[in-house]
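ok so I'm stuck.
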Amino acid sequence: MEIGAVRVLGRTRPGAVVAVNGAPVSISADGVFQHDLYLESGENLIEVVATDLSGETEIQHRGVFFVSSTTGTPLSIFYPVDGLLVVDPTVQVIGGTRLDAVVGVNGKPVSVNEMGIFSATVLLEEGFNLIEVVAVDIQQNVNFQTVAVFYEQ
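replied:
not stuck anymore, here's the structure
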């Protein structure tokens, strides 16, 4: 059985306690958190529980369906979504692929972690921007995806 991975990103109230699928997750001073999860083939349920200082709890559930790839190099861009409009001149590109893949974002090499997740910060020009992500595995199988991001000041 092939295993995949996904990065869970979110924001909650500063000082809250967060758990993803029961695992405690650290949050930044502004309430932003992230946690990488392994996925099994088929349906995977992700549960995020945040409890603020007053004891108020918020629970979010998301289902993720992982389809393993037996040919080629799997490549998924988790963020940004195609057509995203941003007001910040940079965008964080986050995705997943095979552990042995070499990844490039807009022609620059990017590290892949032990779960197959990669991220890179891309500087945007005002207006329309294309972001290209390429993954190549040891057998020279290639996969690429392109997303459009619009930056407005």
